């Protein structure tokens, strides 16, 4: 089977690190900024950064509706930190005018673990990732307040939900792309492969 082509939404955030992690997980990784580039990928990563900025730039680049359409159609998508916020159907404390792509029936609280100077690392056991727990890097990280019936909680930290999957959508509060451990990206690449396999 051919190698899956996975895009990284390159409007703002830690794009380069995700491109490296995806390549290490045996995917062809591409930066995506325009609708025509989005149409050419099998899956998409929405990186960390500033969710309000990503939302505004997605509108500016004409990407918001194409993103929503691809996610509704079942394109595999993975959001980290701000990307998790972008995949939430509801934000508990949105900034004025802030919009999301949606795709996961969850309510997310922005900056829930604290501000930039309260960033931290912690080991997180993620369901579906084999071996030892992953090292989670939490930077101005959100957490998930609650999930709907179709969303599956994959990980928690100190009682708070930090990783969720619903169908072809995956989201983590933390940044696995910053650790050199590519197993979470490997899980997503496997999701993309399964989505491309007839009858899967």
Question: What are the SSEs and their pairings?
Answer:
Layout: E1 5-9, H1 15-24, E2 28-32, H2 35-38, E3 43-46, H3 51-60, H4 64-72, E4 77-80, H5 82-87, E5 88-91, E6 104-109, E7 120-124, E8 134-138, E9 143-147, E10 152-157, E11 160-166, E12 169-172, H6 183-196
Parallel strand pairs: 1-2, 1-3, 3-4, 4-12, 5-6
Antiparallel strand pairs: 6-9, 7-8, 10-11, 11-12
Task: Explain what this protein looks like in three dimensions.
- Helices cover 26% and strands 30% of the residues.
- The chain is built from six helices and twelve strands.
- It is globular.
- The two termini are 14 Å apart.
What is shown here, in short?
Helices cover 26% and strands 30% of the residues. With 200 residues, it is α/β, with parallel strands linked by helices.
Order of helices and strands: EHEHEHHEHEEEEEEEEH
Backbone CA Rg: 15 Å
Percentage of residues in strands: 25-35%
What's the number of helices?
6
User: Which residues sit in consecutive blocks of at least 5 with pLDDT less than 50?
Assistant: none
| Major pleated sheet | 7 strands, mixed
* Structure classification: alpha/beta
Number of strand elements: 12
User: What do the pLDDT scores average to?
Assistant: 94
* Fraction in helix: 25-40%
Could you give the order of strands across the largest sheet?
A: 2-1-3-4-12-11-10
The first-to-last residue Cα distance is: 14 Å
| Shape by Cα distribution | globular
């Amino acid at each position: 089977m051919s190698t899956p082509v996975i895009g990284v939404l390159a409007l703002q955030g830690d794009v380069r690190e995700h491109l490296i992690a995806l390549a290490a997980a045996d995917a062809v990784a591409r930066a995506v900024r325009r609708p025509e580039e989005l149409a050419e990928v099998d899956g998409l990563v929405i990186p960390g950064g500033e969710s309000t900025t990503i939302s505004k730039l997605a509108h500016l680049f004409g990407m918001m509706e194409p993103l929503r359409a691809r996610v509704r159609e079942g394109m595999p998508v993975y959001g980290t930190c701000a990307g998790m916020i972008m995949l939430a159907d509801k934000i508990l404390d949105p900034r004025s005018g802030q919009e999301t792509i949606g795709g996961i029936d969850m309510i997310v609280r922005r900056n829930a673990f604290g501000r930039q100077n309260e960033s931290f690392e912690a080991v997180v056991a993620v369901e579906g990732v084999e071996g030892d727990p992953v090292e989670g890097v939490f930077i101005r990280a959100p957490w998930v307040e609650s999930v709907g019936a179709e969303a599956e909680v994959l990980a928690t930290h100190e009682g708070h939900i930090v990783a969720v999957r619903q169908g072809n959508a995956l989201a983590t509060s933390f940044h696995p792309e910053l650790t050199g451990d590519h197993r979470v990206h490997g899980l997503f690449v496997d999701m993309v492969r399964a989505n491309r396999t007839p009858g899967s």
